[in-house]
Amino acid sequence: MADNSCAEDSFYFGRGIATKQPSRPTVLRDHPDVLGPDPLTLYMPWISRWKKESWPQTRSEVGRFGEDLVAELAEDLGFEVLGRNWRCPNGELDLIVRGADGVIRFVEVRTRTGPRYGSPAESVVPSKLARLRRLGGAWLAAHRDVHGEAAFDVVAVEKDGEDEAKLTWLWNVL
């Protein structure tokens, strides 16, 4: 990451990386480097003013909290949220979004509060990717009125310090 001092409302871009500290990101969809093939890394407040004011305690609360942050980020990036926590007998899709280009993105969100079990992205094993592909097909079959190309992404959410979360959006993992 660039070693730049920045004003509160400044973003610094480089090879698809945008950073802003300490407040919530603003709309980034108009910058050409943001939605490229390289991972997008952003820092967001871990405790959001729109959410509960205490740390998530249980595993399910941590997961839900990460999904909420990613949904906020997707809206800030200009994506239309088509669904959250969509379930079928084969499993669950965390987030389904559509960009301005019409591509439907099936987003797997992985959240960790510390490095004890490795990075969140490392927890997406080949069997999870295969399940994600099957679930994407099931969602498209159930929503025949929605058209567009499909893409599969992973967003890793890591607690970074006392009050920030590091979000890394990995594009087109399948």
From TrEMBL:
One of its GO terms (molecular function) is nucleic acid binding. CDD domains: PoNe_Nuclease. SUPFAM superfamilies: Restriction endonuclease-like. Pfam families: UPF0102 (PF02021). Belongs to the UPF0102 family. NCBIfam families: PRK12497.3-3. This is UPF0102 protein BJL86_1854.
